[in-house]
């Protein structure tokens, strides 16, 4: 699903981009790699919690990167609300 969102321009890749999207109020949910570093998790999860944005645990960074056609990715932000709902429903 994230690959489709990326092609549509509704996905932000990387910790800095995700943090910027959260600060601007542009994201509907965040996916963190299961092996994301503690500092990354703290920075992103704390900001997402403050903005009441759900945070999902995804696959390992290498798998997440492969799914998006990128090197290992620790954080992905989803701007599209429908895509975020789809990801959240899969998580449940």
Task: Tell me what you see in this structure.
This protein is an alpha+beta fold and 92 residues long. Helices cover 51% and strands 15% of the residues. It has 5 helices and 4 strands; from the N terminus they run αβαβαβαβα. Strand 2, helix 3 and strand 3 form a beta-alpha-beta unit. The longest helix has 13 residues.
Q: What are the defining features of this structure?
A:
single chain; 92 residues; alpha+beta; four-stranded mixed beta sheet; 5 helices; 4 strands; 51% helix; globular
Short recap of the structure:
This protein is of the alpha+beta class and 92 residues long. It contains 5 helices and 4 strands.
Order of helices and strands: HEHEHEHEH
SS class: alpha+beta
**Residues in β-strands, percent:** 15-25%
Radius of gyration: 12 Å
Number of strands: 4
